[in-house]
Amino acid sequence: MKKKNPGSIAVMLLVMIYLLIPLVISIIYSVFKKWTGILPEGFSIGNYTSLFSDPNFLASVGRSVGMCIVPILLTIIIVLLALFVTTIYFPKLEKYVQIICMIPYTIQGVILSVSILSLYVGTKSILSNRMVMLMGAYCIVILPYIYQGIRNGMRAVNMLTLIEAAEMLGASKIYAFFRVVVPNIISAIIVSSLLAVGIIFGDYVLIRNLAGTSAPNMQIFLYQTMKSDSTKASAVFVIIMFVTFVITAIVLFLKSREGKDRVQKK
Amino acid sequence: MKRKTYIYLLALVPFLIVAMLYEIVPLITVILKSFQSDGGTGFTLENYQAVFSKLLYQKAILNSLKISLTSAIIGIIIAFLGARAAHQHQGKLNHIFMAVLNMVSNFAGIPLAFAYMILLGNAGLIVSIGKEFGIDMLANYNLYTMNGMSLIYVYFQIPLSTLLLIPAFDGVQKQWKEACTLLGGTQGLFWRKVGVPVLMPSILSTFSVLFANALAAYATIYALMMDNIALLPVQIAGCFTGEVRIRAGLGGALSVVMMLIMVIMILITNGLSKQFQKGGNRK
User: Is B175 an interface residue toward A (CB < 8 Å)?
Assistant: First the structure.
């Protein structure tokens, strides 16, 4: 059908090489003792073994994971509740919910973090606790992704028809929503939560500005190590990138499977 | 009936609380504080005066504009070529291409800064190669300048922009290309007169995403330069987290300027994009 196009192949290869060089070099760097000349010297996985016995590193991994859980669960719940009410009872309000959910797209990290910081830092309430500020900020940062994921999921399963059908069988609207609609869009929820995990995992701006260095996550740990020991930092780098790629791969896999399901249903 | 449904509004409350506490009220206060002097009350424009009269902040605005525009333009050109290549060639390579783009699209922030430090830092690999073989351009590469860092900006723009543009190419139909060839047009002519104008709305909206992306980029730059560079996000964060006292008014004014730049860019690209949609009679 389409003829092979050498120019196109060359362009794609060039772009890929450009994108992969920094990654590949950093990975090679992490398994050698020293790389000051042109070729690396002294193959060793010492960086990894010392890293996994470093309690500070393990604590930062734990924090990175822990910090994902609260904001993601909270955001999913509030968005589900909000969309439940607006789509069923007050469709006119939906527009406003959407606007609120989309604003974080344009105010990215720096402005969001400094505005939250300057508002609460002096007050003597629970809101001035740095962890509480950080969790709140994470909720806002992931809001657009969770919202879009859940919204698209609802559209795809034709929520109103589902609820009508459940009501005809004697279920209440609330029951229908949480026991029929939510299980049907669970894969959309999982995909958007994974995207959110990726965002929180990769965050440096918010945690630095809001929590300072009191509770380092993996990104801050990488930042601190790269200033002192770059071979050790390269091992941290590889682990962070590995986790990120696994998350991306799962998201892509789930999305493609969802797409196939839909095609089959049609 | 009416009263009963209003009870359900309660389910909106948690959402509104979170949005108010961490999105709307903080934003409004930052804007309000930008019109107040620190510690004082009452309306003043002194923060904006400082922003537009102090050399550091003028430079920050100019540098941010410059690097966002250039990196967005270079990013969009590479994305156009890459997406066109993916559109013209069908095969296994496309899957690999997409996989690499998706993978690398999350490669940003501190890890990206680290990788570039290894490659192009003072003792970086490419710099060493340049020294060994006497290639001055590589040997003297200085990552820690505005120009040096522009490579990093271009790097993180490429996967994002290509991924955004690839779906748009589905709108370029094969028949148009055939019609163009039948009338004696070349490939180049086709893309100049048909392809690019048809794609223009997508190109423009991608451009504004790239611009915003570059304008707000902070982590990578901070990792390399700390606070020692005149760029808007770095200066904003410096106003609030610096060792010295917090300058909320000034930081607020800088934030407002940055948000305005973003809004203006969105308005410009939207306006231009309407022009292109008016011109064609696509359905």
Answer: no
Positive or negative: CA dihedral B167, B214, B143, B110: negative
> What phi and psi, each to the nearest 5 degrees, are found at residue A121?
-60, -35
**Fold for the domain defined by A46-265:** MetI-like fold (1.10.3720)
Distance of alpha carbon B85 from alpha carbon B60, whole angstroms = 37
Q: Is B45 on the interface with A (CB under 8 A)?
A: no
Query: What is the rounded distance in angstroms from the CA atom of residue B270 to the CA atom of residue B283?
Result: 19
A241 contacts in B (CB within 8 Å)?
Answer: 107, 111
Enter the DSSP assignment of A89: T
CB B26 to CB A115 under 8 A? yes
A115 touches chain B (CB under 8 A): yes
Residues B180-212: b if buried by 16+ CB within 10 A, e if exposed: beeeebeeeebbeebbeebbbbbbbbbbbbbbb
pLDDT per residue over A111-125, tens digit each? 999 899 888 887 888
| Residue B157: half-sphere exposure toward Cβ, Cα within 13 Å | 31
**Exposed/middle/buried for residue A228 (C-beta within 10 Å: 0-12, 13-18, 19+):** exposed
- The DSSP element (H or E) to which A43 belongs, if any, is strand A41-43
Per-residue pLDDT reduced to its tens digit, B36-91? 887 777 788 888 988 899 999 999 999 999 999 999 999 999 999 999 998 888 88
CA-based nearest residue in chain A for residue B118: A26
Tokens 């800064």, located at residue = B113
- Please state the CATH superfamily assignment of the domain spanning residues B43-279 in this structure: MetI-like (1.10.3720.10)
Task: Enumerate the domain spans of chain A.
Answer: 6-43, 46-265
Nearest by CB to residue A111, choosing from B82, B159, B255, is: B255
State the angle between helix axes of A159-168 and A130-157 in degrees (0 to 180), rounded to the nearest 10. 80
Distance in angstroms (rounded) separating the CA atoms of residues B215 and B231: 9
**Nearest C-alpha of chain A: how many angstroms from B75?**
11
